[in-house]
Write a structure and sequence with these properties.
The complex is a heterodimer of chains A (107) and B (118). Chain A has 107 residues and is an all-beta fold. Chain A is built from no helices and 11 strands. In chain A, strands 2, 4, 5, 6, 9, 10 and 11 form a 7-stranded mixed β-sheet that branches. In chain A, strands 1-3-8-7 form a 4-stranded antiparallel β-sheet, with no helix packed on it. Chain A starts with a strand and ends with a strand. Chain B has 118 residues and is an all-beta fold. Chain B is built from no helices and 11 strands. The chains are: A mainly beta (107), B mainly beta (118).
Chain lengths: 107, 118
């Protein structure tokens, strides 16, 4: 199975900050990489698919990049509703696997 | 709008089975795969299985092979996930999710908490 490793596991930031989360795959996955965010008590929400394509209706302050094994999710101008846990997911090969999550907290 | 509505919370004893339903609406049921993803308390996400509602074909995570069965009822646009031989490690929130492509989950159920306790 492909292992997905996110860093950091958690971070503290302030409203208006720019934050970057990284995700590394244990083997090349081309751009078959998704990002989700999840708020406490809620189901995950698809933010970005195919590494860099913003899911319809998603705020443009979210951007994704990378290919192969290394990927990033950047949130520019962090908003109060962005404080959540973020997960990367590979869809290159079954079983689909997720990173362990990055919790973005308010500083 | 697309909706996935899951059945309510369950409490089961070790060794028992649980069956969770996922009723879909707002789109063509046979047009999209439905997947099951679980999340243990305070933990991350684990993909479990998928079903092609059109054909009934399924795929399961090797870890669950032999213990999980996913079925569908096209007459009521509903997918079911049954997990048998439960242990305390199966205590988790179980989500159904619609895939727009491969494992791209654009809509999710609200989650069903399954608690396994003696």
């Amino acid at each position: 199975d492909i292992q997905m490793t996110q860093s950091p596991s958690s971070l503290s930031a302030s409203v208006g900050d720019r934050v970057t989360i990284t995700c590394r795959a244990s083997q090349s996955i081309s751009t078959f990489l998704n990002w989700y965010h999840q708020k406490p008590g809620k189901a995950p929400n698809l933010l970005i698919y195919a590494a860099s394509t913003l899911q319809g209706g998603g705020p443009s302050r979210f951007s994704g990049g990378g290919s192969g094994t290394d990927f990033t999710l950047t949130i520019s101008n962090l908003q109060p509703e962005d404080f959540a846990t973020y997960y990367c997911q590979q869809t290159y090969t079954v079983p689909w696997t997720f990173g362990q999550g990055t919790q973005v907290e308010i500083k | 709008q697309v909706q996935l509505v899951q059945s309510g919370a369950e409490v089961k004893k070790p060794g028992a089975s649980v069956k969770v339903s996922c009723k879909t609406s707002g789109y063509t049921f046979i047009g999209y795969y439905i997947h099951w993803v679980r999340q243990a308390p305070g933990q991350g996400l684990e993909w479990m299985a998928w079903i092609n509602p059109k054909s009934g074909d399924t795929k399961y995570l090797q870890t669950f092979q032999g213990r999980v069965t996913v079925t569908r009822d096209t007459s009521i646009n509903t997918v079911y996930m049954e997990l048998s031989r439960l242990t305390s490690d199966d205590t988790a929130l179980y989500y159904c999710a619609r895939a727009i492509d491969r494992g791209d989950f654009d809509s999710w159920g609200q989650g069903t908490l399954v608690t396994v306790s003696s």
